Amino acid sequence: MNNKPSINYLLLIIIPMVFSCYEPVKEDNKKNLPASSPALHVKNKKYMLIDTKASFLTWQGASLNGLINTQTGYIYISNGELMVENGQVKSGTIEVGMNTIEDKNHGSDNKLVNHLKDPDFFDTKRFPFSTIVITGVALVNGEDRKVTGDLTIKGITHAVTFPAKIKVKNGMVTANAQLVIDRTKWDVRYKSAKFYNNLANQTMSDSIKFYIHIIAKKQTPDLR
């Protein structure tokens, strides 16, 4: 396992979009997923199940010390469904297992990753899941969409809007999205200039990016 950069140079920004450059989800990682919440079971025949082995998020973090230094890593989807109607995604739920956080080398048990799981950041013992509930998907152009929804992290929910490219073809949904948030709205305050004075070059950006890659597959024969 490689040595990790100081946590002072991390800014959690849970993000990509050159998803073809990322490695597939490791089977070992799936063992780290806690039991998911039961709220995602839906009987609607137009729902498509998210493939948790092929879907994932990347995160990017940055510190602000005159220059922006970034770190990246992975986090995995534990459960989810998308509702498709007339060949278009209309709504859905994405559930993320917060205890699956990894660094860029897929390290999952080191100083950096364990700090991200602590109360300073995501407090994953108390809040093992984060969710995105998609409430609307508006056509922009071609495969480009504007997605609206509710993001819950650490038990705190705020509305979000973000761009995505979504394709529905042959009973499968492929979606790539970029979500940027102000982490302090979800009580992730570690080394934020909004709450701490005299941080100097240890100040961390309040922005968090999530690059989301989703594959969802047909569940019922009558889905178009």
From TrEMBL:
Pfam families: YceI. Residues 46-217 form the Lipid/polyisoprenoid-binding YceI-like domain. InterPro entries: Lipid/polyisoprenoid-bd_YceI, TTHA0802/YceI-like_sf. This is Lipid/polyisoprenoid-binding YceI-like domain-containing protein.
